[in-house]
């Protein structure tokens, strides 16, 4: 009976050792599986982050292009206004020059009349 008890104790120890070793192996497999899952999730998160960054880049690029187009339109509008103002100014200068020429012609006529009057007064 003591031999049977000894054998049973030995068998229990062996079963316990096998169970412990088996749990360690399963634990390593679980660690490897968890590590792979974590790495996969990390890669997925990285890819999603890169997609979001790229989407933001495209959005900013579109906004920048739209802003540049708005600026171009505003510059074109201002250029047209400046050109229109220059044309108006040229027209006004032309009108003033014509009036000045008229005044000069009238002044010349008056001077001639004054000289003619002086000539007659001297005679």
Task: Indicate the topology.
Blueprint: H1 2-122
Question: Structural class, from secondary structure content?
Answer: mainly alpha
Instruction: Please state roughly what percent of the residues sit in beta strands, choosing from under 5%, 5-15%, 15-25%, 25-35%, 35-45% or over 45%.
Output: under 5%
Give the SSE order as H and E letters: H
Q: What do the pLDDT scores average to? A: 86
> Rg to the nearest angstrom?
52 Å
Number of helices: 1
What is the number of E strands?
A: 0
Low-confidence stretches: none
Alpha-carbon distance between the two ends: 178 Å
Name the helicity range: over 70%
- The shape, in one word, is rod-shaped
The major pleated sheet works out as: none
Question: How would you explain this protein's 3D organization?
Answer:
The protein has one helix spanning 2-122. It starts with a helix and ends with a helix. With 123 residues, it is mostly helical. The chain is built from one helix and no strands.
Task: Write a concise keyword list for the protein shown above.
rod-shaped; 98% helix; single chain; mainly alpha; 123 residues
In short:
The protein is an all-alpha fold. It contains 1 helix and no strands.
